[in-house]
Design goal:
Shape: extended
Distance between the termini: 49 Å
Largest sheet: 3 strands, antiparallel
Number of helices: 14
Order of helices and strands: HHHHEEHEHEHEHHHHHHH
Strand content: 5-15%
Strand order of the largest sheet: 1-2-3
Length: 278
C-alpha cells in the first residue's frame, strides 16, 4: 500500500502486458500501460515505471540486440536446413563484428530467380553494394539474358552493377529523378512535364515535351540530359525494362517492414521469412 507500490515491479507489470507486444505492428504506449494497471489493479504507477515495464516485456519476447546477433548464425543454419535452396550469408569485419547479411528463401529463388529480397547492410556505399550484388549473382546465376536493374541514381549502385553484372541493363527510377527535379528546380509545370516526357513512347512526342520543359528552365534540360535519356525515358528504352519505370516494388517491401525494422536482427529475419512464406 505504500506510495511507490514496490510489489508492482516493472518486471511483474512487463509480464502482465507482454501479450500486447506479440504483434510487431501493435502500438501499446507507456500511457496505455498506466491505464491498464489502474483499471485492473487500482494502482497508479509513474510514466517511468510504465516505460521500464514496456522494455521488460519486449526483452522477454525478443531478447536484446546483442543476444540476437549471437543467435543469427544458428538461426540461418536452421533456415537453410528447413528451406532447401535457401541462401543466407553473413559478412563480418576484421574484428568479427557484423557487417552485412544476405538472405534469399529457396522457394522464392525456385519460383522466380530474377526476383530477390532482401539484404541487410551497414550503409549504402561501394563495398556494401558490391557485396550484395556478388551474393545476388551467386543466387540467380551468372548469365541471365535481358537482366535489368531499376534503381535510384546512387553512384555506388551504378559502380556495383557495372562491376558484377557488366552485361545487364541498368536504368533509373523516374519517381526518384522526378523528386530530384522537384527539389532542385522550383517549377511545378516542369515536374509534371518530366513525367509526361518520361512515359512518352514516341521520340517525336518526347522531344516536343522536352522542348517545352526546357523553355521553363534550361538547367532542368541539362540535368536530365546528364541523367541519360536511355536510362529514364521510355522513348529511348530498348524495351527490356518493359513498363517498369519505378522502384515501387522495393518501396512496397520497405513499407511492409517499417515496424519490423525496430526488431533485433534475428527477429527481423524471422519476420521477413514468415512474411514471404505466408
Amino acid at each position: 500500500m505504500r506510495r511507490g507500490h514496490c510489489q508492482a515491479k516493472s518486471r511483474v507489470i512487463g509480464s502482465h502486458v507482454k501479450p500486447y507486444y506479440m504483434d510487431v505492428k501493435r502500438v501499446h504506449k507507456p500511457k496505455n500501460i498506466i491505464n491498464d494497471v489502474r483499471k485492473e489493479f487500482g494502482v497508479n504507477i509513474s510514466y517511468s515505471k510504465a516505460w521500464r515495464s514496456r522494455e521488460k516485456a519486449l526483452d522477454m519476447i525478443r531478447g536484446g540486440a546483442e543476444e540476437s546477433f549471437q543467435l543469427l548464425p544458428s538461426y540461418l543454419y536452421m533456415l537453410k536446413l528447413k528451406n532447401p535452396g535457401t541462401i543466407a550469408e553473413i559478412e563480418s569485419d576484421s574484428e568479427s563484428r557484423f557487417k552485412y547479411l544476405f538472405m534469399a528463401i529457396g522457394a522464392c529463388l525456385a519460383r522466380f530467380r530474377s526476383q530477390m529480397r532482401p539484404g541487410v547492410g551497414d550503409s549504402e556505399n561501394d563495398a556494401s553494394w558490391e557485396w550484395f550484388f556478388t551474393k545476388l549473382r551467386l543466387a540467380i546465376g551468372h548469365e541471365i539474358l535481358d537482366l535489368v536493374f531499376v534503381s535510384d541514381r546512387h553512384k555506388s549502385i551504378s559502380k556495383a552493377v557495372l562491376m558484377v553484372f557488366p552485361n545487364a541493363l541498368h536504368v533509373h527510377c523516374i519517381y526518384h529523378i522526378g523528386q530530384n527535379v522537384k527539389a532542385k528546380f522550383k517549377h511545378g509545370n516542369v515536374h509534371a512535364l518530366f513525367y509526361k516526357a518520361a512515359k512518352a513512347y514516341r521520340e517525336s512526342e518526347f522531344h516536343e515535351l522536352f522542348n517545352e520543359l526546357e523553355q521553363y528552365d534550361l538547367a532542368v534540360g541539362t540535368y536530365l540530359r546528364e541523367a541519360d535519356f536511355s536510362r529514364w525515358a521510355c522513348a529511348y528504352s530498348d524495351g527490356k525494362r518493359s513498363d517498369i519505370m519505378t522502384t515501387n516494388i522495393a518501396e512496397c517491401l520497405n513499407a511492409a517492414l517499417v515496424d519490423a525494422r525496430k526488431l533485433p536482427i534475428q527477429c527481423l529475419m524471422e519476420y521477413i521469412r514468415n512474411m514471404l512464406q505466408q
